[in-house]
């Protein structure tokens, strides 16, 4: 990806105010046309997402990690900004680590939430709690339709796990006789860590969320203060089987065939198709 | 005289006969002369939880005064309270003028405030507001940015450390030194606000500060919050208050929910404005008064306390309530004070010398406070006794309207030989007595010595609608008596001796049933009784009032209405004698 010519806040601003905004609007119109939505997430002290989406939100829980004077200040600023922007109705702040709160099923969290915004500073695999936390999130949200927004830093110290998981997926799909696997994975790898995450995140979430159906929006790669990738997923309760959903091969193929969005400038979001997998009759029979 | 004395001293100084003179010893008065324990009362808790909150809200509201003065713009007039129970914090946030470096430095002062010289501009005037949380929380943080100043300041005071050392034998400056810090950073020049945060509140003593519902109730009743727009009298009250000073309201929210003044819906007559004057006729307060519109036997307003509704009167100084509702009404001079629950209203003190005490639980004693308290008591009496008058009106109307049904029952009882006819007839007799009592009371001339209560009762009983109803009731009874008189003696109903007439005041409150009543009241109820069983029993009459007194009172009342020289008076005097003779009385 070429170096961005616009600032981090502009890139994030576009994703927040245009892309996510419209996605949330569509989600609300479809699932909760007559109700305000509940938000939980990591809004950051400036509350830009809350301010942008305030027309959809009825109550909101901000999680802010503390433990150092700077982080304490951030929590203070977060509350002050809630007051400044008159957003305190239905607001509560939880000082802590969101992954730990999810995993511990903290009673401070008032489930369910219809917007979950995990705007992580770090990556997905480097932090040991993160994946189990997201898994717990799906089980807490059982029966609730919600939109999950996940933003990750590409400099993830994953200890090689990401590459290993992706390679395993590649081999497995090849073994199933799906055509075009190597080309697709090679195209993804050209985008480095971002490409690997673009494969890994949808498949991992789809595996975890066996009681929800997931509908992914365009993953967007952008240059912020660091290189970031943003996922937006609409999760609707899966009601067909009591035991939950199993991830079929055709679904895995669909997830891998998701294009990647590249955000260069505010008015220049490009969609890139990183190859295309197709199911032949043999692999369909394997499902 | 002073100059003369100085001259005398001057001569004395020069006099060789008076060598023992006072000489000045050099001495300074410094902060070292003030010991730390002086802050003990603040540290121990001068205020309760809600009063602490009110002090900070007061500061917030005062900041809008300076905003307007500095910018000439209309202020936003909002106060946001945010309770974070999770970490035992409360924040009070306003969008007033904010503070610059000089102001934040002064903010930490104790009883040093620019408000002290401008008491008529501000609600607060003691300059200790910021310290009111000293006993409440471990730390106070004030973040502020002044309008037009591109800087944000943060004052932090370590209240816990101050409390921990407040009883030590050290000067106050030593106590406070190092217990506070002021920091600054660049900030948006357009932004202006002050945010006070009470950190780590003592939940055992001051848990109410973290109870959103409790704060909301307090705000609704004590703070200058708006009237609930859903209340059906809001528009009328707001319109009436528009010309009264210090009635501005502030949009105050608690965790985003607005605090609003709430009153019972649909149970009140339209509000009226009443001026409250002292004995010299000088206005000391203005009140809006809304009376119950209930006309049944129960007039006290149904108040939904859970919904924040109230009845009775709040006393407000600069739009902050002082003390409980009905402040100063718990006094022997206030007649029928229970009837204040038939009203909803607020009293705005306009007398500038009246200030609330530190806790705002009553007025600070002053040369004027006695006069104002007295004026309030007179107001309460006037209002409450007016209610009593209305109660009498309703009772009279109700009784008068029930008479025709009673008379019909007696007629029917006589026709059918009903064994309960005597009991029913006793009720008629009793009703007659009571109605005549009302009639007589209304006819009495008002005297200077008459109490407010008596005057109010008469005023209501003199209403044409009441008079007509009573006349009609008595006419119906007279017709019944005439028809009974025509019956053979054995068929006539009689009243049981035990059924002495009793005055029935359906609307009277439980307490007033046992209350001492004036002679005038007694005359109104007993003296003109038409109950033959009482009049003829002798002993019964003696238990109540002598016949002579009764007759004289009756004639006095007639005289008061028509005059002793009128033909009517002479005719009544004559007919009364004849009627009494006819009934076998020696006149």
Mean pLDDT of chain B: 82
User: How many DSSP H or I helices of chain B?
Assistant: 18
Per the principal axes of the C-alpha atoms, what is the gross shape of chain B?
Answer: elongated
Chain pair with largest interface: A-B, 17 and 17 residues
Which range does the strand content of chain A fall in?
Answer: 15-25%
Structural class of chain A: alpha/beta
Shape of chain A: globular
Task: Give the strand line-up of the largest sheet of chain B.
Answer: 5-4-3-6-2-1-7-8
Distance between termini of chain B? Answer: 79 Å
Briefly characterize the structure.
Chain A contains 10 helices and 10 strands. Chain A has 287 residues and is α/β, with parallel strands linked by helices. In chain A, strand 9 and strand 10 form a beta hairpin.
Short descriptors:
heterodimer, A: 287 residues, alpha/beta, ten-stranded mixed β-sheet, 10 helices, 22% strand, globular, disordered N terminus, B: 587 residues, alpha+beta, eight-stranded mixed β-sheet, 18 helices, 13 strands
Task: Describe the structure in your own words.
The complex is a heterodimer of chains A (287) and B (587). In chain A, strands 1, 2, 3, 4, 5, 6, 7, 8, 9 and 10 form a ten-stranded mixed beta sheet that branches. Chain A is built from ten helices and ten strands. Chain A is an alpha/beta fold. Chain A has helices spanning 8-31, 48-53, 69-84, 98-103, 130-140, 161-175, 181-189, 192-208, 249-256, 281-285; strands at residues 37-41, 57-64, 91-95, 115-119, 146-153, 212-216, 220-223, 227-237, 260-265, 268-272. Chain B has 587 residues and is an alpha+beta fold. In chain B, α10 runs antiparallel to α11 (421-443), α11 (421-443) crosses α13 (464-485) and α17 (547-562) runs antiparallel to α18. The termini of chain B are far apart. The model of chain B is unreliable at 1-12 and 497-544 (pLDDT under 50). Classes of the chains: A alpha/beta (287), B alpha+beta (587). The interface between A and B is medium-sized, with 17 and 17 residues.
């Amino acid at each position: 990806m070429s170096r961005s010519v616009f600032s981090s806040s502009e890139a994030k601003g576009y994703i927040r105010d245009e892309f996510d905004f419209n996605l949330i609007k569509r989600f609300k119109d479809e699932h909760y046309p007559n109700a305000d939505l509940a938000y939980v997430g990591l809004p950051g002290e400036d509350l830009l997402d809350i301010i942008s989406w305030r027309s959809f939100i009825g109550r909101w829980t901000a999680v802010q990690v503390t433990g150092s004077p700077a982080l304490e200040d951030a929590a203070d600023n977060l509350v002050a900004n809630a007051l400044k922007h008159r957003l305190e109705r239905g607001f509560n702040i939880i000082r802590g680590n969101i992954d730990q709160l999810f995993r511990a099923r903290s009673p401070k969290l008032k489930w369910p939430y219809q917007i979950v915004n995990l705007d992580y500073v770090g990556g997905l695999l480097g932090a040991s709690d993160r994946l189990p936390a997201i898994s717990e999130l799906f089980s807490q949200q059982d029966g609730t339709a919600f939109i999950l927004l996940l933003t990750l830093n590409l400099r993830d110290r994953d200890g090689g796990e990401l590459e290993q998981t992706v390679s395993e997926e590649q081999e497995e799909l090849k073994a199933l006789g799906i055509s075009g696997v190597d080309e697709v994975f090679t195209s993804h790898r050209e985008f480095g860590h971002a490409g690997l995450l673009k494969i890994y995140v949808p498949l991992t979430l789809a595996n975890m969320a066996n009681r929800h159906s997931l509908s992914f929006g365009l993953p967007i790669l952008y240059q912020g203060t660091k290189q970031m990738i943003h996922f937006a997923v609409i999760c609707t309760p899966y009601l067909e089987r009591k035991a939950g959903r199993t991830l079929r091969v055709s679904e895995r193929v669909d997830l891998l065939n998701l294009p990647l969005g590249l955000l260069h400038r505010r008015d220049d979001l490009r969609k890139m198709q990183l190859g295309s997998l197709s199911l032949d009759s043999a692999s369909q029979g394997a499902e | 005289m002073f100059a003369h004395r100085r001259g005398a001293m001057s001569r004395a100084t020069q006099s060789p006969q008076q060598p023992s003179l006072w000489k000045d010893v050099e001495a300074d008065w410094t902060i070292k002369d003030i010991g730390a324990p002086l802050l003990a009362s603040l540290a121990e808790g001068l205020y309760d939880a809600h009063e602490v909150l009110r002090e900070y809200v007061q500061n917030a509201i005062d900041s809008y005064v300076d905003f307007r003065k500095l910018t000439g713009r209309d202020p936003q007039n909002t106060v946001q309270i945010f309770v974070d129970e999770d970490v035992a914090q409360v924040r009070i946030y306003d969008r007033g003028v904010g503070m610059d470096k000089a102001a934040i430095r002064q903010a930490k002062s104790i009883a040093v405030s620019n408000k002290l010289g401008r008491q008529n501009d501000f609600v607060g005037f003691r300059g200790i507001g910021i310290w009111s949380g000293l006993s409440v929380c471990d730390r106070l943080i004030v973040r502020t940015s002044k309008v037009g100043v591109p800087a944000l300041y943060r004052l932090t005071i370590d209240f816990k450390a101050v409390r921990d050392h407040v009883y030590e034998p050290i000067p106050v400056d030593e106590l406070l030194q190092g217990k506070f810090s002021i920091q600054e950073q660049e900030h948006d020049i357009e932004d202006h606000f002050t945010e006070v945060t009470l950190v780590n509140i003592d939940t055992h003593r001051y848990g109410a500060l973290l109870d959103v519902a409790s704060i909301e109730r307090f705000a609704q009743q004590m703070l200058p919050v708006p009237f609930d727009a859903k209340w059906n009298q809001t528009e009328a009250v707001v319109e009436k208050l528009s010309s009264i000073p210090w009635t501005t309201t502030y949009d105050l929210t608690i965790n985003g929910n607005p605090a609003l003044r709430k009153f019972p819906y649909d149970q009140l007559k339209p509000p009226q404005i009443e001026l409250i004057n002292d004995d010299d006729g000088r206005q000391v307060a203005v009140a809006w008064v809304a009376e119950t519109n209930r006309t049944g036997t129960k007039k006290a307003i149904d108040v939904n306390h859970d919904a924040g509704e109230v009845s009775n009167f709040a006393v407000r100084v600069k739009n902050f309530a002082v003390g409980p509702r009905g402040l100063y009404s718990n006094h022997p001079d206030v007649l029928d004070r229970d009837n204040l629950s038939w009203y909803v209203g607020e009293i705005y003190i306009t007398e500038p010398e009246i200030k609330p005490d530190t806790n705002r639980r009553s007025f600070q004693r002053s040369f004027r406070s006695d006069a104002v308290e007295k004026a309030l008591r007179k107001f309460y009496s006037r209002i409450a006794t007016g209610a009593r008058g209305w109660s009498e009106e309703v009772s009279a109307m109700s009784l008068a309207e029930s008479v025709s049904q009673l008379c019909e029952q007696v007629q029917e009882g006589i026709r059918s030989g009903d064994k309960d006819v005597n009991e029913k007839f006793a009720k008629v007799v009793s009703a007659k007595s009571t109605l005549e009592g009302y009639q007589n009371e209304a006819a009495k001339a008002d005297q200077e010595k008459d109490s407010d209560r008596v005057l109010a009762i008469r005023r209501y009983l003199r209403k044409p609608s009441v008079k007509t109803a009573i006349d009609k009731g008595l006419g119906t009874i007279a017709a019944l008596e005439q028809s009974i008189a025509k019956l053979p003696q054995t068929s006539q109903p009689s009243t049981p001796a035990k059924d002495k007439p009793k005055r029935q005041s359906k609307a009277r409150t439980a307490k007033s049933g046992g209350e001492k009543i004036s002679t005038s009241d007694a005359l109104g109820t007993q003296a003109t009784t038409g109950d033959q069983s009482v009049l003829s029993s002798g002993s019964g009459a003696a238990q109540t009032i002598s016949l002579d007194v009764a007759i004289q009172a009756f004639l006095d009342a007639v005289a008061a209405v028509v005059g002793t020289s009128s033909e009517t008076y002479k005719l009544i005097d004559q007919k009364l004698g004849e009627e009494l003779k006819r009934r076998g009385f020696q006149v």
